Amino acid sequence: xxxxxxxxKFGRYSFKKRKFSETDSxxxxxxxxxxxxxxxxxxxxxxxxxxxxxxxxLPNGRDxxxxxxxxxxxxxxxxxxxxxxxxxxxxxICNPKTxxxxxxxxxxxxxxxxxxxxxxxxVFRGTDGTLVGWKEDCNLVVxxxxxxxxxxxxxxxxxxxxxxxxxHIIGHSKGGNLATYSSLKxxxxxxxxxxxxYNHDGPGFDDLSIFDQKEFKKIAKKQHKIVPxxxxxxxxxxxxxxxxxxxxxxxPMWQHSIFKWCIDSKGEIILLEDRTSxxxxxxxxxxxxxxxxxxxxxxxxxxxLFEILRWDGRTTxxxxxxxxxxxxxxxxGKLLFRYDSKKRAFLIKNVTEFIKIKKAAQxxxxxxxxxxxxxxx
Length: 377
Fold this sequence. Notes:
- This protein is of the alpha/beta class.
- It folds into 2 domains: 3-275, Rossmann fold; 293-376, no CATH class.
- It has helices at residues 3-10, 22-31, 40-44, 61-66, 72-82, 86-89, 131-138, 147-160, 174-185, 213-219, 277-290, 295-309, 317-321, 325-336, 341-376, and strands at 49-51, 92-101, 106-114, 120-124, 167-172, 194-200, 223-228, 244-246, 271-272.
- A 9-stranded mixed beta sheet has the order 1-2-3-4-5-6-7-8-9, with helices on both faces.
- The protein is globular.
């Protein structure tokens, strides 16, 4: 079953009756993608803490939450399951924070949930459908610290300094990166109340020297990272901590979605011994492509890529992926001829190099497969 089945089967238990688990962290990560920033001010009426069920008091509350998400149908189903449960339907929300800037390439959203008792769950949203968000992701290979990471530390410090409650930090995709980063950079005086980080297929870091190495050892046991068997995004860049691999449904490109992750009859995430050969191959391809590239070349590549994607005023990934192959090729051709010969050669060289590395990796895999067949014969 997936998290919908988990909510149906275990949603009747409060957090007092059934302790918080890694599976619950998946639900929290998923909830963060709902558009809470659209409804919080309306339902809060000046209050700092608001029961999520009060969204039901809005005539179009459900639509406001799911409109503009990456998959409105799935997030609508999530909300319908969620609100019926004792476990999550009684949660209270507070302190939603949004930072979005085209000029600064930052897309950030965080919020805090409160269950029965004192425990808080700080959750960071991953990348949304805006090109701003996707460019900030790509800037992970350019900048030592992206703006959202700095915002995440600020959010954690400001949220937990006001009270003495225990807290978890949770996030999926870029949100997972922010969860790990903030746990390593938050003020040390908060560490005794810090219960754990739950990073769901979030990318790593280009430079681990930005962290205090002593902190690694102190909180290593509190770090919980899970990636699907076909993970690509979660294995980008350097990984500061170990991770577990979970079973997921559907084709590789869909496994990044938490909705595809598998849960057993006991309500636990189903784990695998290792990632697939395809995941390992793609990790190597990206590493072999990026590592030899200078910092300046990485920056030029990212800026040029998004200059192309934003051509004609596009602001969302959907507007890009909606282009036909013919339109995309026409756009690329038109823009390439706008660049000077040096920049054009740079783009062609790096795209060609990626294709070359990927082809070599594929041939290596196929060669190993043929050798194994001969050995069996």
